[in-house]
């Protein structure tokens, strides 16, 4: 198991906690909690060692596109593909309301 951590600029804290997905069968679980204003921290526990650059590229696409709310995100991976990662993050942002975007 590999532990990865990433940090991105953000706005005000997310409004609530969210849990989407399950660990198993090539899927992953995403848990979101309100974060510290100005920062989103993403902690990834993955069963696939050596994919730090892939995770960095995938998450950078998600968090550099638009300002997001400040969150603490824990991702528990079970060998999920980048498409599943993107889908689960989109589900989590949708559950937050406003697609996890920074609220004005």
From TrEMBL:
It comes from Cupriavidus basilensis. Transmembrane segments: none annotated. Coiled coil: none annotated. Covalently binds the prosthetic group of malonate decarboxylase. NCBIfam families: malonate_delta (TIGR03130), PRK01220.1 (NF002293). One of its GO terms (cellular component) is cytoplasm. This is Malonate decarboxylase acyl carrier protein. Keywords: Cytoplasm, Phosphoprotein. InterPro entries: Mal_deCO2ase/Cit_lyase_ACP (IPR023439), Malonate_deCO2ase_dsu (IPR009662). The modification O-(phosphoribosyl dephospho-coenzyme A)serine is found at residue 25.
């Amino acid at each position: 198991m590999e532990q990865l951590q990433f940090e991105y600029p953000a706005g005000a804290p997310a409004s609530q906690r969210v849990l989407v997905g399950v660990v198993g069968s090539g899927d992953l679980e995403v848990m979101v909690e309100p974060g510290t204003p100005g920062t989103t921290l993403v902690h990834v526990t993955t069963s696939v060692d050596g994919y730090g650059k892939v995770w960095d590229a995938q998450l950078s696409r998600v968090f550099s596109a638009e300002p997001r709310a400040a969150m603490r995100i824990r991702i528990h991976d079970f060998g999920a593909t980048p498409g599943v990662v993107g889908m689960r993050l989109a589900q989590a942002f949708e559950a937050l309301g406003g697609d996890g975007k920074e609220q004005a």
